[in-house]
């Protein structure tokens, strides 16, 4: 395994309805949030290079005491009212990915 991700949705989103809509064919999280009147508009992201914890080693199937670094990304997504609608955590092996960012200035 090269990466582990987790997504958290705050309580102000109707979670039962969200889960029901996400089961529809072709559903995506952000399109479904739009249907629930929480249009994703901005995100804030932090990226950190680190040594994996014991738990991260296990989740990424790395050898114990591995010297392979990991990249930890935390993304916070906000809707049109600047309400937090998702917190996303990604941990991945640094030797398996190249990160590329594009920003409009």
List keywords for this structure.
single chain, 105 residues, alpha+beta, four-stranded antiparallel beta sheet, 3 helices, 4 strands
Please tell me about this protein's structure.
With 105 residues, the chain is an alpha+beta fold. 20% of the residues lie in helices and 35% in strands. It is built from three helices and four strands. It has helices spanning 15-22, 29-35, 54-59; strands at residues 3-8, 40-50, 70-79, 84-93. A four-stranded antiparallel beta sheet has the order 1-4-3-2. Strand 3 and strand 4 (84-93) form a beta hairpin. The chain starts with a strand and ends in a 12-residue tail after the last strand.
* Number of DSSP strand runs: 4
Structure class: alpha+beta
- Detail the poorly predicted runs: none
User: Helices and strands, in N-to-C order?
Assistant: EHHEHEE
Main sheet: which strands, in order across? Answer: 1-4-3-2
Q: How much is the average pLDDT?
A: 93
Q: What proportion strand? A: 35-45%
Biggest sheet statistics: 4 strands, antiparallel
Determine the N-to-C terminus distance. Answer: 36 Å
Portion of residues in helices? 10-25%
Task: Give me the Rg, rounded.
Answer: 16 Å
Shape: globular
How many alpha or pi helices? 3
């Amino acid at each position: 395994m090269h990466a582990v991700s987790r997504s958290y949705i705050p309580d102000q989103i109707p979670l039962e309805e969200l889960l029901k809509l996400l089961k529809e064919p072709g559903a995506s999280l952000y399109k479904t949030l739009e249907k629930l009147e929480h249009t994703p508009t901005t995100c804030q992201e932090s990226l950190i290079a680190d040594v994996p914890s014991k738990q991260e080693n296990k989740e990424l199937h790395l050898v114990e005491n591995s010297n392979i670094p990991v990249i930890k990304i935390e993304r916070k997504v906000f809707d049109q009212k600047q309400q937090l609608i998702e917190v996303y955590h990604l941990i991945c092996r640094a030797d398996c990915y190249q990160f590329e960012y594009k920003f409009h200035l």
